[in-house]
Amino acid sequence: MTNDERELRAELVRLQQEHRDLDAAIDALHQSPAPDLLRLQRLKKRKLALRDRIAFIEDQITPDIIA
């Protein structure tokens, strides 16, 4: 495993944790009596951006193998 791959895996773990944390924050906001819709929208946007970055890193780690 190269140093770059180790760095990508470390970033992937960090991003996945942040994604889970955002999911919990979004759920908590939904449960509140008067959710802040703007904050909710921003959290969801951040979560989507994280998902895209996670997918990109996973593609970088996984080699393209044509079977």
Please tell me about this protein's structure.
This protein is mainly α and 67 residues long. It has one domain. Helices cover 81% and strands 0% of the residues. The chain contains 2 helices and no strands. The two termini are 23 Å apart.
Main attributes of the structure:
67 residues, mainly alpha
Please outline the helices and strands.
Blueprint (H helix, E strand, L loop, with lengths): L2 H29 L5 H25 L6
Describe what is shown at a glance.
This protein has one domain. Helix content is 81%, strand content 0%. The chain has helices spanning 3-31, 37-61.
Going by helix content, strand content and strand pairing, the class is mainly alpha
Strand tally:
0
Number of folding domains?
1
Roughly how much helix do the residues carry, as a percent range? Answer: over 70%
Total of helices: 2
Based on Cα principal axes, name the global outline.
elongated
The ordered H/E elements are: HH
Mean pLDDT across all amino acids:
93
Distance between the termini: 23 Å
User: Sheet with the most strands?
Assistant: none
β content, as a range? under 5%
Question: Which parts are unreliable, with pLDDT below 50 for 5 consecutive residues or more?
Answer: none
What Rg do the Cα atoms give?
Answer: 16 Å
